[in-house]
User: What shape does this take?
Amino acid sequence: MSETTHIHTDLDTLSASLTDLRTRLESDPPSGIQGVVGFDGFVDTFIRMKSPASMAEFGPKVAAAAGIAASYSVDHQGDKFGGNGPLFAAAIHDIFDATANVTYIGGIGDGDVEPIFQEALGEKLSRLVPIAASAHSDCLEFTDGKIMLGDFDACGDVTLDNLLKVLGEKGLDDLLKEADFISAVNWGKLPHVGEIWSTFANRLKELGREAKSVPMFMDLAEFDHRSGEDVQDLLARMEILTAQCTTLLSFNLKEAWQLGDRFGGNFGGKKDPESVCELAQLLHENVKVDKIVIHPNSGAACASQDGCVYVPGPYCQEPLISTGAGDNFGAGCMAAVLSGCDDTEMLLMGNSTSGYFVRSGRTPNFDGLGQFLSAWSAGTLPERL
Assistant: This one.
């Protein structure tokens, strides 16, 4: 383990970072932040499993029922807007207490914005740019995780051509001239989105935006079905993106294991903080980005030129909701970067945003994050907020 690796398994060794972060949260958050988020869009049907309630129980039961049939008790909770991008955009709006000006571009309608997205985001975001119809997911939620059953056909229509048909080159340039950040998420489900990512970086350069002045948050999301050639193409684009933007590439633990295998890592099943940090460092050495972030359920790690840091998470035994937790984590990290936080503070803010969300179904603003951190530090954090 490198001398620049700092592993914190509890909050006792993080007092200085917690104090600095609370100070930031107690001051006025940056206002008037402008950003562009994209590019997916899903309508999610939520199904809470009642019996069996956990994935650990569900898996063996399904296997035992193979070739026969099975029936399980659920709570059908209806449809909600979804997709990593829309959830991220909504979370940024809430963290900055409605002062951020966010444009969302993506699969939220073919022609007109679909009603479910208009209702959820129309009053929150500055602009909605529909470039393709939404996809659909059935979200099976368990006490220890979730299973996403997705119909991804519409994702193939999220293309640069469709974006430019709707927005136009001037419209895109106008957004990029003023953008304080970019969030590009769910590469795994969008087969043609790499060209959009690269075009954004190239246009920023051509518009005279200073190199490294615009942070770009990226989350690949589940990418099991993408080919090795697709992954290689993505890795080649990362160098272009990082030359222009300050890049953050975020993974859940399964996704990080999967990419780590490509570089000779053997981390599958390893969840301890030391292994998570080693994996983050392996990815940082092999992927041309400024920061690699990995967020298992129990904490989060960030590897950058400053080394690797791991911080614990405010673990919730039985989350009220898990879909959207990763997007809230990412939005918390981006808000931290925009607020001038270092890697440790960024992870604490990401974990706190996610921890607040899974307990309440809501995204906190700066005040809410400060209260959450205080309760977490004092050991009085409840399971529900």
Remarks:
- The longest strand covers residues 42-51.
- The two ends are 38 Å apart (CA to CA).
- Residues 160-178 form the longest helix (19 residues).
